[in-house]
Write a structure and sequence with these properties.
It is found in: Membrane. The chain is mainly alpha-helical and about 450 residues long. Helix content is about 80%, strand content about 0%. It has 2 domains: about 1-160 and about 220-440, Up-down Bundle (Growth Hormone, Chain: A), CATH 1.20.1250; about 170-210, no CATH class.
Length: about 450
């Protein structure tokens, strides 16, 4: 929506405050959807939740494309927020649960890669659609996602259900067939089946295809109460780790930088809207290129190393942007070519550092560390925190930079990412471990002593 906001503001004659509210409604409505998504996926299945999310996303995009007034855009964004709340939880959970340990980082990061490809296509379409009339251009930008979301809903009908969810329902025979399809060997499939059965509370030697399980296990009932009121020390550490990495992802400012990148570039002296849209295309290119790098590194160097490298790079680049924009705002009276070039290039580097580590690892790590009985609803809590943090940043970004300058805002974001760097250092590595091992990993040797 970053490019569309520029033209919506001009077409509908809305204020900066209304722009912030419009951008924030998506994340506000994603909050209740997150919690509903966790229960829905535990009750009806991961695949059902993804299909439902895709259909809702299509409806929201159609309404935004219609968009005759500011109120309709708010409603459309709210519908879109519900879809986003579902998708952000279910996609990583589904990928983590069907993936073998040796490829879990790669496969669980594919939704992030898909988002980044979509972001690039969005930036590119903004550049080309900007040439249309004012009233048509931004509506085409917002309506374009209808096609891929409907395609996803149709394609999901052909895919398998999560084997872990099937076992939670007592459908062991179906789960065995799925595991044989998604495992490297038959022996690995049988080993994964045994581990999941033990995690659910089924005897690992049970040979029945249909097993009677408790209603609590089937629906995920009581998971949140146990997670918050009576967690074991390992589960408490898991919850803190998962919530914190989601909070730092958004409080570090990357979501707002992506959304308001045209304004950031405008601060350096770019006034031509076509040039602003073209500059944002480079952000999408950077994200896609380094998404490919990250998906191949996740299972080779591990999650923790990528988090640390990513955080260091973000601190350095944010400080660079802060210094550059402070100089421009305080001492420049005319358009500075060096400042334009420096800001654009360093923004691309900032996005690259985020994309190689913090971006994908946040979703991979939080989707894999929760025990099965808490996974969907635990991740729902994390995504709710993610959306709250994003809502805070997005709805205050313009107000904050007007109060402390754009350069001052980047210094603040650098400080937040420096704090995140310390926290990432305390996290244990999960590369190559089965999902059923996570409580053990967080139980004994974790530096996260809480």
């Amino acid at each position: 929506m970053s490019g569309a906001l520029v033209f919506i503001k001009e077409d509908l004659q809305i204020s900066d405050l209304q722009v912030q509210i419009l951008a924030g409604t998506l994340h506000a409505c994603a909050l209740p959807a997150c919690m509903a998504a966790g229960r829905t996926s535990d009750y009806k299945g991961r695949r059902f939740a993804i299909i439902l999310s895709s259909i809702i996303f299509s409806l929201g995009s159609i309404l935004l494309a219609y968009g005759p007034s500011y109120l309709i855009l708010i409603i459309g964004n709210c519908i879109l927020g519900i879809a986003v709340g579902f998708a952000l939880i279910i996609a990583p959970v589904y990928c983590a649960e069907i993936s073998p340990p040796s490829y879990r980082g790669f496969l669980t990061s594919l939704p992030e890669l898909s988002i980044n490809i979509g972001l690039l296509l969005g930036y590119a379409s903004n550049y080309f659609l900007e040439k249309l009339s004012l009233k048509l251009g931004w509506r085409m930008m917002l309506g374009a996602p209808t096609v891929p979301s409907l395609a996803l809903a149709i394609l999901m009908l052909k895919l398998v259900e999560s084997p872990r969810w099937l076992i939670m329902q007592g459908r062991v025979g179906e789960a065995r067939k799925v595991l044989l399809l998604v495992s490297n060997t038959k022996e690995e499939a049988e080993q994964r089946l045994k581990e999941i059965k033990v995690a659910v509370g089924i005897d690992e030697n049970c040979a029945l295809d249909i097993v009677q399980v408790s209603r609590k296990s089937r629906s995920g009932g009581g998971a949140l109460k146990e997670l918050f009121c009576k967690p074991s020390p390992p589960v408490r550490r898991i919850l803190i780790a998962a919530i914190a990495i989601h909070a730092f992802l958004q409080l570090g400012g990357i979501g707002a930088i992506l959304l308001y990148s045209p304004r950031i570039f405008e601060k350096t002296g770019i006034t031509d809207k076509s040039m602003l849209m073209l500059a944002t295309v480079g952000i999408g290119v950077s994200k896609v290129i380094f998404s490919f790098v990250s998906i191949f590194l996740l299972d080779k160097v591990g999650r923790r190393i990528l988090l640390l490298v990513s955080a260091v790079g973000m601190v350095v680049t944010l400080l660079g942007l802060g210094i550059c924009l402070t100089i421009v705002e305080r001492y420049s009276t005319e358009r500075e070519v060096w400042a334009i070039n420096f800001t654009i290039i360093v923004t691309y580097v900032l996005v690259a550092f985020m994309t190689i580590g913090i971006g994908p690892v946040t979703w991979v790590y939080s989707a894999e560390i929760f025990p099965l009985r808490f996974r969907a609803q635990g991740l729902a809590v994390c995504v709710a925190v993610n959306r709250i943090a994003n809502l805070i940043i997005i709805t205050s970004f313009i107000s904050i930079y007007k109060a402390i300058t754009m350069g001052g805002l980047f210094f603040l974001l650098a400080a937040i990412n420096a704090l995140a760097l310390w926290f990432y250092y305390t996290l244990p590595e999960t590369k190559g471990r089965s999902l059923e091992d996570m409580e053990t990993i967080f139980g004994g040797n974790s530096k996260l002593e809480i």
